[in-house]
Amino acid sequence: xxxxxxxxxxxxxxxxxxxxxxxxxxxxxxxxxxxxxxxxxxxxxxxxxxxxxxxxxxxxxxxxxxxxxxxxxxxxxxxxxxxxxxxxxxxxxxxxxxxxxxxxxxxxxxxxxxxxxxxxxxxxxxxxxxxxxxxxxxxxxxxxxxxxxxxxxxxxxxxxxxxxxxxxxxxxxxxxxxxxxxxxxxxxxxxxxxxxxxxxxxxxxxxxxxxxxxxxxxxxxxxxxxxxxxxxxxxxxxxxxxxxxxxxxxxxxxxxxxxxxxxxxxxxxxxxxxxxxxxxxxxxxxxxxxxxxxxxxxxxxxxxxxxxxxxxxxxxxxxxxxxxxxxxxxxxxxxxxxxxxxxxxxxxxxxxxxxxxxxxxxxxxxxxxxxxxxxxxxxxxxxxxxxxxxxxxxxxxxxxxxxx
Length: 404
Fold this sequence. Notes:
The chain is of the alpha+beta class.
């Protein structure tokens, strides 16, 4: 089955705009679709979705392609935002961008556009590649871009972009195989400066000059503690030193802090950082200096792993598997060994200590250029401070001090 009709998920940004431009130039039948996942105003009284939608429609007019809006506000609330709030209340730090790609863009939105517009493929502005689709900037449009037949038993692999700095396979690590088979990533072999120049040359000047989106997926950049308090009831608690159990101050809500974050304690000679949170007592445990051993660990456990293509045979035959790991978008890959546990969960033993490993974040695994998939971090091993036997207290040993 050859790809002829492609729906491009337009965000109003430069990357998806250039993805549509490249497909149009190569002769595809292109349709632009804007996902409306959030429709409330930010702190400045601006609905960013409206502004982005206008830019997406502008691109479609310039390219002379159809433009559609797809309202997924309810789906986003139920499948992503509500889940995010639950994890914060649980004391975790979620990654809504990964969850949005998994449940919204490459499931709900994907199924809708494939059916509604009778499309052959969905294209996005992600910097990534696959094992079946080559570089659409250079290859013959309708001869090489073939979709694997649905009855083909060989799964499609997700590969890192050639530009390692912009590679976004981390955010795609939970993508369903069904969607990956029919996904196109036109920017997989391009760099950001080249993409911006293409946008400038095509007349998308104001879009090329837009700032990178750095906030929560489809919600945008906000004062996050204030934003979170609109949806979660917070309770004050205490900052407790991991060194001696001393109470160093009070906070307004444990869910507003994450491991590795600066605690913001006043009157201290040096900055203190969050080591852990205890949701049962609402205590936040802190340590001095950003490189304290209490911030470093080498062992974590994940939930059942989502393998994008095929599960590593060695892992299931030998119960162990060597690969690489990251839990943040741009962190350098770290060697690790996976040990299979029950229910497809894995223990991840890291070759070196990593700072601020955090429950709720995703452990994503790589082998060479391939992104294998990953799973949510659900348990943390001991810190280097614990292993050195210098920690004098543990969470369950903290006693509440009497009120003054």
